[in-house]
Records
---
Amino acid sequence: MTTAVTNFFSKLVNPVWLTGPIFGKELRVSSRRRRNYVLRFAYLIFLTVFVVMVWLSMVKLEDQGSIAYRTSRMSVAGEAIIGTIILFQFLATQMIAIIMLSTSISDEIYHRTLGVLMTTPVNSFQIVMGKLLSKLLQLVLLLAISLPMLAVVRIFGGVPWNYVISSLCITLTAVIFAGSLSLYYSIGNRRAYVVILKTVFTLGFLYLFIPAMGQVLLHKVVSQRVLIPVLTLPNPFMALQFNTMMRVGARMAGIVSFFSWPLHCAVMLGASALILGVSVKVVRKVALRQAVGQLELGPKRKQRKKEKEQSAARTTEPEESAGPIRRVTGSPVLWKEIRAPIIEGAGGRNSIIGLVVSIIALLITYLACIKQNCLQQDYAHVSYVSLFLLIGSIVNIALSATSITTEKEARSWPILLATSIDDWQILLGKAGGVFRRCLPVWVFLAGHVVLFVSVGYIHPIAIVHLTMVVAWIIVFLCGSGLYFSARLRRTTSAVVANFALAVVLWLVVPVLFRLVSQIIHNDRALEVCISTNPFVQAAVIMQGAGGRHNAHTSLTDLRYYWLLEHRQVGRTTLILLINMVGYIFLGLFLAWRAKCRFRRNIF
Amino acid sequence: MIETKSLTKYYGNLAAVVDLDLTIGPGDIFGFIGPNGAGKTTTMRILATLLEPTRGTASIDGLDVTKNGKQVRRVVGYMPDFMGVYDDLKVFEYLEFFAAAFGIERKKRESIVDGVLELTDLRSKRSANVDSLSRGMQQRLGVARVLIHDPKVLILDEPASGLDPRARIEIRELLRELKRMGKTIMISSHILSELEEICDHVGIIEHGRLVFSGTMEEIRPRLGLQNRVNVKVLNNQDKAVELLSAVPQIRQVQKVGDCIAVTFHDGQSGDGIIARTLVNGGIDIISLQPERLKLDDAFLQLTKGIVH
């Protein structure tokens, strides 16, 4: 009896029961992957750049004030740096968790090791926990990297320890939630970029859409005293903001007195446990299916459909059960690309349902804006257009980068290249396919602009300007995506490379330019750099031409604010035209390079 | 029809194919045999214009594969070792897609596709989804695809790998039919006995080098496989040995247990000679059993570098 009790407690204390051998295996594999070191290096570089930027913006290098003044500036800088580090960690570690866990289960499924694991004493709980905890350990290390810096800066800034600790706890629970979601999606999706996009969109839906809609639709029904705490509790973004407000001063602390970070963390952990519980159940089902030889992913409904098709194929007369045959017309590559569903993996009916749901969601936001009376303001249209542009760019980046690599992974690429079809035809077909599949998002943008031009809330010139921006975004991202897709073998690598290009061009380079401009005290180069950013361009266009007031202003009186000065419509058009020509040329150059690489790295 | 001269391909420092000289005549079925990693697939990929050789030349129907890629692709039908299929395409659509890719006019496509479906016995699967077909059917679909533009040359990289015995036989029958149609076929395998019945010529490759090339008749003595017959007699085994040893076509006679193993000289064979000799000598025969050629064993020896 005593031995049994001792054994039970020794098992309980030993963390092996939680993760089995998976935890150790994952750590060993991680330590051999170069990308993990690159990730840590990039994290440190970005962290340093942001801290330096904040430092430079707070403490001027040539400040020669008194010691007391300089000490006070140091204190302000210390506070700002801690805020920056915490915000940076909050965003970066969530993103890294999503990326790291995006292939956690799908890798096991496609290497056919999940079924093998089920033939050992390892259970699905240990698989899920082993995967999650091994990645979390690495993320905790990333958080720990900045602790000495936080400690030193805390001394300058006089920031209380409880703020640092509570912020770290909020970050950690948000990371666990985001990681759990990514792990869950990785069970049913093979490609990492699909998991990443699904997780980001889900988090965006949970953290942005639901609170915004809840606030707009329920604020007259439910008291703010009840509504705000309820909306805040499962939202780490709001939690971090409230936590910061409580630190700032007694007045702000009074406003958010209802907020309790331990409660928020408990809710997030509970939600994560729920997702992990579901994951454990699904992993077990998938692993057992694999163990008995069924290797497909996805829900049972999809499985049943496939099995039905296979049994129909085995019968002698499957023609009656099959759908209509579509004849090939025009370029065969374009025909095949156009024939593919708009949303990969979703059938025609599901695509239509998705579109209808999106339209309804958009109309709800319009109604909410009408209630708030903000559709007449330029900022509403800046937000809408930026959002459409962001979604359109993401879809364009992903689809263009997958166009060739998916064929390479399916091993149909050499077969296509062994035909007498011209490489240019393949390129144009692929580009046409990408454009067609991205079209719904751009139709949303066009619909929004045309609708509000017609009701007099946006100036008609915005149609011309936005068309220029969208045109170059499509050509440039399609060209770069095709290039990476032709150059790289793996879909995920191509998508990540294409995303990285966009992030470097439109985020990292402007940040570096800002850093330099603060040192040399010249913003001209920064302005030029920022004006090549499509989101800045869209914001400038909509600020200048959006809203009821601007819509009724004559063309010559429109003013566009380009960082340093207001510019008229002619100059703005010229800037957009130069950008458009430059990016389109670059996009076409990359597409041509893609064509040149078609017959290299085929296998 | 297919000719390579000093064909060489390096992947970095690794030599995949070294100074390969091959000649395959029109209408021949050429079996390209070698163990995994010998260089078969690399050679076939070069011939299909998907890889460029490091040095040397390769031509098909008089066209250089590196200089006239597009023209070569018109006369070649290439089936890779692993056939990728497009999801969500039906069998007819899949074949019509490739017919269009080869520039076949739209009005002719339907009859051509139906023709190859008939030939490959896939007519009943015309409307089935490609990814729902079994492995054997997918291989047949692969053959149908390479026939869609009526190429003179077929390059088939291990078309029977991973198939069950029935599907292997079906593929073999299909290849015989294609031979009757006058196609030049280059087919690879790492199993020599698999190609024995259908190939006119074979080439054996190891470590990127061609270690043997010739007809099936030429390969047996080269592999050290003489024709041997096991004889069982009712009585006078010693006399039987004596009689058979005197026959000029017979090289060696050995007693193995209750059997007599009779080995003929290269190119010689004939159960009839043995029977006639023994019956004329007054010996009763219980059985005459030609020994099955152990091609695969000999092939293993050859590709170990024992025979050169």
---
Amino acid sequence: MAFVEKKLPANASAVDKGLAWVDSRFPLTKLWNDQWGKYYAPKNFNFWYIFGSLAMLVLVIQIVTGIFLVMNYKPDANLAFASVETTIMRDVPWGWLVRYMHSTGASAFFIIVYLHMTRGLLYGSYRKPRELIWLFGVGIFLCLMGEAFMGYLLPWGQMSFWGAQVIVNLFGAIPFIGPELSLWIRGDYVVSDATLNRFFSFHVIAIPLVLLGLVAAHLIALHEVGSNNPDGVEIKENLDKDGHPVDGIPSHPYYSVHDIFGVTVFLVVFSAIVFFAPEMGGYFLEANNFVPADALKTPNHIAPVWYFTPFYSILRATTSQFIYALEIGVVAYVCMIFFKSRLAGLWKTIAVIAGAAIIIAFNVFEAKFFGVVLMGVSVMILAGLPWFDQSPVKSIRYRPSWHKYVYIVFGISFLVLGYLGVKPPGVWGSAFSLDIAQTVSQICSLIYFGFFLLMPWWSAMGTFKPVPSRVTFHAH
Amino acid sequence: MNLLKKCVAVLALVPFIALACPEPEVPLDVAPDRAQDLAALQRGAKTFVNYCLGCHAASSMRYNRLRDIGLDEATVKANLLFTSEKVGDVMSIPMQPKDAKAWFGTTPPDLSVIARSEATEEGNGRDWLYTYLRGFYKDDTRPTGWNNIVCKNVAMPHVFWELQGTQKMVLSKPVAEEGKEASNEEGKFDHFELVTPGKMSKLEYDTTVADLVAYLQWQSEPTAQLRRQLGVWVVMFLAVLAFLAWRLNASYWKEVK
């Protein structure tokens, strides 16, 4: 195809001419229009729809503050702690502010991402044709967890060191390859300078690059099929004479200005934390991390940072006693698949064989290994959501009212698991020779897994409300 | 061979694996808040340099940062610098880790951020330090002759014994159940009793410790006050901005039917 330069009249402004020059060589205006300017989004977005934009904002905050931190941070076991507490926090002008923004940003990222995922759950944002958006999102969540875990080692405090030691040792529980795998990850027999250096590389370059790629894919996939909305109505099914959805509005200026408002509210809360409570009672900046890492002094209580605690609770709940309950659960689940599902015969056979293999494995390997496995499964199970959900409607608004209570119970279980994960074991004492906190964790773990694994059945049960063809919108 | 090396490495650590301070046996006293009192902070700085810097480093703290609490360079050089250090240097100490291990069993911890490291959900680090420094008592079973109610079996001797005097721990007697003899087990900590008075009265000593703890808290985060002062302006500005953004948003969305 012959190259055609965009031609503008001679009296066009320099800016317009410049833009035309670029547009002839690079699809700048087209990109802007397709991705935002003329991207038609549903007009009935509510409060839950701000967290995607906020997540992007916090990613930028983390990258920019991270760039400035790396200018003064030293990734050496002997120098790291001092480079943070002496250089960055005291000697570098405004270093303390950059550090607090980065530490607060990390926790803010997880709060935002959990709320963003909750929106997905509430409105069925992961349903066809948006499964891939959801899968990219799960990938982003996994990268985020890795990024946070590796970043936490860098200040080289007691919690940094011992938290990393515990978590990397978990990989040692994997049969056959475990100890070698842990050695490979650590680069040494214990967490040491070698570990710090490689975690620094992963945290600063490797995972951020993957994160940026996944976020781009996440957004491209979204814009390809269009956004969902709180009513779960597909707005592209109702187009006006210009080919735009009647229930859609161009993101610019309506969502530009809407998101700016959301961002300013977020910044008020974010700044209040950064300037008045950066430690957040020891949850965002843990007290024990102000002690330099000491391989010879074990802290009284080693716990991961608050955003990992729900999954850590599941790990701790998996005792050999709990494995018995899980065995019963596996048998019951395989029976449900065999007798109560509409899957093809092949899948049912596979389910029976897999179930048998799992029961055998439960009796061969120790509970510690399964704690690690369940912790991993508890995160990965999110990826199955588009296929677990068999509800005829997308949004919670048109599901039977009792479904709301299922979500509430799931949410409460998740929060209880998170709370118990922060506390040391045995925090609620014992009764009937059972550790109360551990038993509650086990029950909540069963609720957590049951929510997903039983979803093919409960999500289709009940009387559903009719879904409207147009979105519910009240003029502002 | 790898497995053998690993076993040796782990076993070598065993005799030295020590715990940090165990959980305190008593509830913490509440330290007075003297963060805004420059005179208290300066007195605390003096106590710190005279009593603590002999063994404890504060290697994140530069001497010239003391200007933030009103001590100019001349005062610092005249009263607080005792060795060949310059006013821009950090407060390090010449004690070698090898010697520290031989004398105390462990290196005295660096005190730069000690107040932040002792914060708990129950009390802030200030409370821990205040109770700790007033909680030493005579214990002849310990190598130093001192023990501490907040950090049991601590390696640190009672540096302030001349000021506070010597106190001993008085335990509450376990209550005998009806019809049974009183048990022989030790009761819980009840109160301290002064055995030998020191140079200061209890009130004088408590206030000296309060000043020192205020200084240690300031030293743990010298920018704390600036942070809060700036925060007021930043949050106010952003609140105004949020209000304007809200009205701007509302004005655009009026057009949406």
